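Hey, quick one: can you model this chain's 3D structure?
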Amino acid sequence: MRVTVIPNIESVHLIVKEIHHRARVYSLFDLAQLFLGSRERYRLEVKVDPKRPALFHGKKDDCLFLTKEEAAAYFFQSDGFADFYESEEIETEPPSGNFQVVARCGISGEWLGPPNFHSYQANLRRLHRERFSNMPFDRYAAKVRTERGEEAVNEWLETMKKRVRWRPVGGDDDAWTFDRAEIERDFITRGFSEAFEEVHQTELPGDVSARAVSEGVLAAIRIAGSHARRHPAMIIPTICRMLESDHLAIFKKQGKLFCGPARPHPLVNFDELSERPAAIVRWLDANPDSKLEQLWKAVLPEGVEEPPKEWLVDLFWLLTQGHVLLFSDSTLVLPKKRAGGEGQPSKKAKKKKAKPAAEKPPAAKKKGGRKARDRKASVPPHAATVRKITRMKSGGLKKLRGKERLWGRRLARRERIDSLGDED
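Sure thing. Here's the predicted structure for all 424 residues.
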């Protein structure tokens, strides 16, 4: 199973709306930390190998289980139960008999009945399945305690005066039953496919309830969330795709990724601007990395504390065109062209236009080097084979095979070695 953290699309839309409204630039790393700061701001994509058994995902609510039994146990405690079955509580006669001991759940305090009562085991199994299925049954049964006395028996009898019965929605009066197991069997055979679907890939909200998923799924979710919070950069590629789909600009500055209303667009000539935008740009050019408050104090006339609407409109235009960048901490940056602007070749162009370096004079030949190479090249490739065969004894010559035997025959004909023994 693989669980991936994905930013919630509603949270992304809120960030996009904020950026378009305020024209500010945000760091993608800071946005990743923002999304991971609350479970409501991200979703969980759960995948399993298609060769593995499928998971059971609720069609009407976000639940996910590994087994059919876990899904059915959750269904009877969920709000979806009312869509399939209706229940009512009626008064009945308490059971009659001589009861001395009454069993009680040691965790919830719910009465289970006398151990010799006919529905005791059914009540015990039902309570374990509905409320304590994450605990082994033997361990749960060991926590059941028994109480003696008339008071305990009377208290249990009072609970038995009111009983709950169930029937399918729209059923007649004959469909009522007090047996919960009968309703569970009916749901498994008839209504399970309407409430759950088998999937190998699905999405869950980040704030999914712990009781709405299996223990194995819950463990994988917690591991994925903890890992993402320790390494927020792992969801930055997903954030980039989601922001670009909403027409936000993604750019890199000083090795870090940012998003804003527009990419940096350096101005070439400040004189082309009107009076107010030119005043803003000239002041930022002379005072780099200044705050927004410092800008208004410098460019506004004396006695004006709040910037007029026309100044705000001009600054907003500069921000949306990328001529000025306003970061989330109110820092203003004036983008500038890289070193070597117009009329000056860039570093890559300089490398291309640079004259090739003068060729180095050939290194002095080592004495005897040419003769050594010639001698080595003149040695034929079969010389080692001939030398090996001429040094072998008659016993070794008889064992020659393949190409070595062919060379042995040639050398024998030239009388350089003795006969191979089986040739003559």
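One thing worth noting: Residues 341-346 have pLDDT under 50 and may be disordered.
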